[in-house]
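Now for a sample.
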Amino acid sequence: MQKTFTEFSTNAVLKIGNESLLQSYTTAKQPDLYTFIRTTNVKTEIVVDSIPYTIAPNSVFALTTVQYFQFISGNALIVYQFNREFYCIKDHDQEVSCAGLLFFGNVHIPIIELVEKEQRKLDVLHDVFLDELATEDTIQAEMLRMLMARFIIISTRLLKAKEGFVETTKTTKIDLLREFNLLVESFFKTEHSVSFYANKLFKSPKTLSNNFAKLNTSPLQIIHERIILEAKRLLIYTDKTAKEIAYEVGFEDASHLSRLFKKHTALSPSDFKKQLQKAV
């Protein structure tokens, strides 16, 4: 089952379906669309950035367009996919925008396990989605965007409640972390210094470091982890050499990336690639 909404004036796309939407990901690749996957009565096996996950029944998880995703198994899934033009170009509260809690897209995937009440709420919303897709009129696009915003708001609330980290820290620090992550996502291939991002956020590097220390991380750690993640993705999923990858993530000298990569993984990029080849 698959239903697609398109808006030619904006190039917006929304797809709603089941596991058939995921069949093109039996080999790992980056999704063209932001993706929500909801499991129902069976578990689902996936791989994201070479890390295997077993998603429990009655769960929701989100994927961005920068992660490498592989679908291993699962059925009776509910899948929502959309492009930036459908949702991200709209003005939303920061927590539910494409820079929100569900779409960091850097290191982890948020997984939300649903209790029975939450399942019923999302079942009703899904039925309304399907009904709207069958209603073609001048306000259909806006209605579908409102429904997606509602789905994201519900999921964000559940994520905050499950993980609890927002309640235990000041929201301003979470907002700063999210803004920083979004900037890193945009500039990590060319800008590696904390001072660049601090200037963009109108903060001093020391202020950033002090705020992030309370969240058990640091600005430089986030920058480096994003660079390493991209290097791993390119080593795993492309045939690019270590030198080409170093250049792609902003290092003119491949030895600089090699040292950073080895610090984080205990392997050089070349050794990491060899280890992958041996595992095949």
The radius of gyration is 20 Å. The longest strand covers residues 2-7. The chain has a mean pLDDT of 87.
